[in-house]
Specification:
The complex is a heterotrimer. Chain B is an alpha/beta fold. Chain B is built from eleven helices and twelve strands. Chain B has two domains: about 130 residues, Response regulator (Rossmann fold), CATH 3.40.50; about 130 residues, Response regulator (Rossmann fold). Chain C is mainly alpha-helical. Chain C has one domain: ABC transporter involved in vitamin B12 uptake, BtuC (Orthogonal Bundle), CATH 1.10.3470. Classes of the chains: A alpha/beta, B alpha/beta, C mainly alpha.
Chain lengths: ~500, ~300, ~325
């Protein structure tokens, strides 16, 4: 085994991490040099976040070796990671909005004198920290008054310690505007010049081109390639998604029928603009795009969960009342939301109860729910979907992610909607359950129903859709038939810059 | 959207304020004549309402204005109210303390403002008080014990007020002293928190373990009335109940014969005396330091004098 | 692991929390029976039932609220107000007793609806909305009563009376309301929606449940039950008091939580609440009969409440 050269600050070799059977990281190798920006690239679920959490001390790897500055280390806790000079900026900000900039910077280690916070010293000490990230704000200002980008800088300033040698940024640009992103990239470059090693996760290939020194590509929990800064976008996408998909996506398309769902000119200021598409009977329409492209926002608005400013949604030729979920349901629309636990399931209730949620109203006569009928139908659906459970009375909380997702889909199948919107239906779902969910999609369309499939999983969108609507920056960037579509063609539409200029204009 | 909601809220609060002002009984000192403050412990209780009525009647007769505040049984609240009164140009303040031990800051506030303070019904522990008008709870308890011993022989139970309250302490102490007269023995002492419903429940429970009780002394009429409910037909026949306070409902029970006796304080007299002393103090005249307002045992014989 | 069928799952686990409270109740009764032979007499047990009735009925209403992840602090005040309106409209306004009774019930429903509107449409936290109602209802009670107790008409007094010496009506009312609560929670759309809303309000909305309307139903039911409890309380005394039922909301909440409901919503049953209310009543009855020092009684009651919930929590955690 070769000694890492003196410029290497962190290495990971053969890192393997299992979660209850599923292999999240499989023999991952990664190396970070002092003064470089090293991008981690991969699809959702490829293992990037797990690797970040290993570096942050949130997860301990089952196998493999980590070294920091050439010394083998075990990162057993976030505290330990900080002591080793590893700072991590997670996707969610962890600032306290009501406290001042300085207080946030020194949270948990406020300078004290005679047991009282030494305010003057705190404000004084905050200045050099803010200078380091090039932020000029009054340290006494409450954080809530600052913009999201500035808040992110404060988060970074807080994470940076004098001995910080590794800074990990997990999708920091997802919430930033273009100019804010520019600023962040500048600061990253500045930190690199100060000798900090940066691990940068982003889906935006353009950002990679601008700032990356090296790129490690993760796919299915493995580190499949290490690319130099100059690698072509084509090559990156190929490495990122390159696997044969034919047998994984058993889509059986039929002849499309009448239009069941028509979204026309749907606009909500600041979220999406002029979104139009159609879904026909027997058809699966995929909606692709980067995270933050407005896909979830559009389908939620179409289903009546959130409001929209203009445009129309029609189901079976009937125009839906905006902001009315029940009207959408009556017209035959259903939505399996992206956030399964937060919006799809009642975790305190049983499998049977959850399966009956949508049909409860129609199973009610004179205020009384036909619970026997509900139970019978739930039992049939659980069997049909092969939900692995100890029984209908088992609390849904206890099921695995894939089985929970089957329950959410199942409650909608019981209502037999004409158009079912699936938002990230296979996220966090193991491969076996994925294929079963795809079979359900096939069955629905074969019965003359339609499916709108929102997914960040490109192979899934291409493999399971008949047509693909690609969204970028809140707009429909293009539409293409799934047959013959390639991932780089979809990606090229998803990352296009034209829409950005129009939105910010 | 947000704006309209806020506007609606503002309108609502304004309306509420206007309404409150319209039906408010308070009011600040007017320019002419003498104004006196009366800080009542609570107006949730008929007894104190009568005290207030007695005071108001006296104020009318003497031609002075009376500003009444209600502390809703909150001692801190009362201190604040007395402090407020001192800034409203009152010439003397009558306090009916929520709690004797916690009224000293109120006395201090009056003293600082150089306003004479008169205590009524309950005393003020610590602090300068010009005149103290009270009926003697200890004496009342003793009278009640004597009356119960006269009416009944054997086992009796004692329904106590809120644990730790001064009325509970004083009446209980007097009752214990009066027991020495003999003839009755206390077999159970339990609290029913001065509450009628609790008086009913506690008495019901005590009857299970002491079915043979002959008498009940309750620290107030409300609990006594609850006990009478629990006793049903036995009340006034083979079980004698003695209450305390002489509230309208209590007096009615005495009249009906279900309650053997109650100890009547004379809240209206207390209120009247307090105002008389307060007016004297306001004019700088000599006041009586202590005024004992008689407590009386009310039985069927003399109930007519009290019931109005 | 097996594939689900329609067969009954392991119900014992689901009922474990209720049985936890039931075990506590039985233990309490056994201890008291040993210490005080008079405890286990028919008459005393009837007394306990009657004494539990008011809090139990309040607690059944609170069960709806707590299952749907809310809280109702106003039930004690609303109970007093409803009873006062009932008594006043007969004694002072001269309306016939049954009409007065209905007016009292309507008062409870209206107060509950106001709570519901503030929570569902005004987006006020339930704690604040019902805290405000606690104060408003108590204040209105004083305004109506002028601070003095008001005699109740026969229609209301009947609610607190005995049908026969061994058939007290409050006990019957409690059992009827219990049955009604169980029926609503288990069988009706409104009741099932409470579990869904309490478990995950967003999922309820996305599944097409009209969350706002259902919350109105929840608080209206709580108000209605409070009115029933208030009139039962006044009926037992023959008069509606301005200070009646002060602090009862805390007993009601304690009964619901002792009965195995979760304050974070989605969990709770009528039977558990009944057991919770009985535990409180048995405890008070027993402490009286044992002649425990009044200063210590409050300590004991607090300790038992904490223990009952603690045992239940530990039991549930271990069954996970």
């Amino acid at each position: 085994m070769a000694e890492p050269d003196s410029g290497t600050v962190l290495t990971a070799r053969g890192i393997t991490k299992r979660f209850t059977g599923a292999l999240a990281l499989d023999d991952v190798t990664f190396e970070l040099k002092r003064g470089e920006v090293h991008v981690l690239l991969g699809e959702n679920g490829a293992g990037k976040s797990t690797l970040v959490k290993v570096l942050a001390g949130v997860h301990t790897p089952d196998e493999g070796e980590l070294t920091v500055n050439g010394r083998p280390v075990r990162i057993t806790s976030p505290h330990r990671a900080a002591a080793l000079g590893i700072a991590v900026i997670h996707q969610e900000l962890t600032l306290v909005p009501e406290l001042s900039v300085a207080e946030n910077l020194f949270l948990g280690r406020l300078p004290r004198r005679f047991g009282v916070v030494d305010r003057a010293r705190m404000l004084r000490d905050a200045v050099p920290l803010l200078d380091r990230v090039g932020l000029r704000v009054d340290p006494a200002r409450p954080v809530r008054e600052l913009g999201i980008a500035q808040q992110q800088m404060i988060e970074i300033a807080r994470a940076l310690d004098l001995n910080t040698s590794v800074l990990v940024l997990d999708e920091p640009t997802a919430v930033l505007t273009e100019t804010e992103t520019d600023r962040l990239l500048e600061i990253m470059a500045g930190l690199r010049d100060q000798g900090v090693g940066l691990v940068f996760i982003t889906h935006h290939l353009e950002e990679i081109r601008r700032v990356a020194d090296r790129i490690t590509v993760l796919r299915d929990g493995r580190s499949v390639a290490m690319l130099p800064a100059g690698a072509s976008v084509q090559h990156m996408i190929e490495q990122m998604v390159g696997r044969s998909i034919e047998e994984q996506y058993p889509r059986r398309a039929g002849e499309p029928g009448e239009v069941l769902l028509r979204v026309d000119g749907l606009t909500r200021e600041g979220a999406f603009r002029d979104v139009s598409f159609e879904v026909r009977a027997g058809e699966v329409v995929g909606v692709a795009g980067l995270v933050g492209a407005g896909r979830t926002e559009v389908v939620r608005a179409a289903f009546g969960v959130d409001r929209y400013d203009s445009g129309t949604v029609e189901v079976g030729g009937k125009r839906l009342r905006p902001g009315d979920v029940r009207a959408a349901m009556r017209a035959g629309l259903g939505l399996v939301p992206e956030d399964r636990k937060g919006q799809g399931l009642v975790l305190t209730s049983s499998v049977g109860e959850n399966l009956g949620l949508v049909t409860m109203r129609s199973a009610t006569r004179a205020g009384f729910v036909d619970r026997r009928g509900q139970r019978r139908r739930a039992g049939e659906m659980a069997s049909a979907l092969r939900v692995k459970t100890s029984g209908l009375d088992q609390t849904v909380r206890e099921l695995s992610g894939g089985n929970q997702q089957k329950v959410v889909i199942g409650k909608w199948l019981l209502a037999d909607p004409r158009v079912l919107v699936l938002d990230e239906p296979t996220r966090g779902v193991d491969v076996g359950a994925k294929v079963e969910i795809y079979e359900l999609i096939n069955r629905m369309t074969a019965a003359g129903r339609a499916v709108l499939l929102v997914s960040s999983d490109l192979p899934e969108v291409i493999g399971m859709s008949d047509r693909i609507v690609v969204m970028a920056h809140g707009r429909v960037a293009g539409e293409l038939p799934a047959r013959g579509a390639t991932q780089d063609r979809v990606m090229a539409l998803a990352v296009q810059e034209r829409a950005v200029e129009e939105m910010s204009a | 959207m947000k704006l309209t909601r806020r506007a609606a809220l503002a309108a609502l609060s304004a309306t509420t304020l206007a309404l409150t002002a319209a039906c408010g009984s308070g009011g600040t000192a007017s320019s002419g004549g003498v104004t006196i403050g009366l800080a009542v412990s609570t107006l949730d209780n008929p007894y104190f309402i009568q005290l207030k009525e007695g005071a108001e009647a006296a104020a009318r007769e003497l031609g002075v204005e009376l500003v009444v505040t209600d502390a809703q049984n909150d001692a801190t609240n009362q201190v604040n109210q007395v402090q407020t009164l001192t800034t409203q140009g009152v010439k003397s303040i009558i306090i009916n303390p929520v709690d004797s031990a916690q009224a000293a800051p109120a006395a201090k506030a009056a003293e600082t403002a150089n306003i004479p303070l008169i205590s009524v019904d309950r005393s003020v522990d610590g602090g300068k008080v010009a005149s103290e008008i009270a009926s003697d709870n200890v004496q009342g308890g003793t009278l009640a014990a004597a009356e119960l011993a006269r009416a009944a022989v054997g086992e009796v139970v004692h329904l106590q007020g809120i644990p730790g309250a001064s009325a509970t302490r004083d009446r209980g102490e007097g009752f214990q002293q009066g027991l020495n007269a003999g003839g009755i023995t206390v077999v159970a002492s339990q609290t029913a928190n001065f509450d009628r419903a609790e008086g009913l429940d506690v008495m019901t429970n005590l009857l299970q373990s002491h079915p043979g009780v002959k008498g009940v002394f309750a620290d107030n009429d409300e609990m006594a009335l609850g006990a009478i409910k629990a006793l049903g037909d036995r009340a006034g026949k083979d079980v004698q109940v003695v209450g305390f306070d002489g509230t309208p409902d209590g007096l009615k029970a005495v009249q009906d014969g279900t309650m053997a006796a109650t100890v009547a304080q004379q809240p209206k007299v207390l209120g009247r005396q307090a105002v008389e002393q307060a007016v004297k103090a306001a004019k700088g005249e000599q006041v009586q330091q202590v005024i004992d307002v008689e407590v009386k045992i009310v039985t069927k014989q003399n109930v007519a004098e009290f019931a109005k | 692991m097996t594939t689900a069928t329609a067969r009954r799952g392991p119900d014992w686990r689901r009922h474990a929390s209720e049985n936890g409270a039931l075990v506590a109740l039985i233990a309490l009764v056994v201890v008291l029976a040993v210490l005080r032979p008079t405890f286990l007499t028919t008459q005393n047990l009837l007394n306990v039932g009657v004494q539990a009735a008011v809090v139990a009925v309040l607690a059944f209403g609170s069960t709806f609220v707590i299952v749907s992840s809310g809280i109702d602090l106003s039930v004690g005040s609303v109970a007093a107000l409803s009873a006062m309106v009932g008594a006043w409209s007969s004694a002072e306004a001269g309306l016939p007793g049954p009409v007065a009774l209905l007016l009292g019930l309507a008062t409870g429903v209206v107060a509950g609806l106001v709570n519901g509107v503030l929570v569902a449409h005004g987006k006020l936290p339930a704690f604040i909305a019902t805290l405000a109602m606690l104060s408003v209802a108590r204040g209105l009670t004083l305004v109506v009563s002028q601070g003095s107790p008001v005699a109740t008409p026969d229609a209301i007094t009947f609610l607190g009376s005995n049908l026969t010496p061994h058939l007290p009506l409050p006990l019957i009312v409690m059992l009827v309301v219990f049955g009604l609560t169980a029926l609503i929670l288990n069988r009706t759309y409104a009741g099932r929606s409470m579990y869904v809303i309490g478990g995950n309000e967003e999922a309820a909305r996305l599944s097409g449940i009209n969350v706002k309307n259902q919350k109105l139903v929840v608080y209206a039911l709580s108000g209605l039950f409070a009115a029933v409890a208030g009139m039962m309380l006044a009926g037992r005394l023959g008069s509606a008091g301005p200070q009646a039922a002060v602090g009862y909301e805390l007993d009601a909440i304690a009964a619901v939580v002792i009965g195995g409901a979760s304050l974070s919503g989605g969990v709770g049953r009528a039977f558990g609440t009944l057991v919770g209310a009985l535990i409180l009543a048995v405890l008070r009855n027993g402490l009286n009969q044992l002649q425990v020092n009044p200063f210590w009684q409050q300590v004991v009651i607090g300790v038992v409440i904490a223990l009952a919930v603690l045992v239940d929590t530990l039991r549930r955690r271990s069954s996970r």
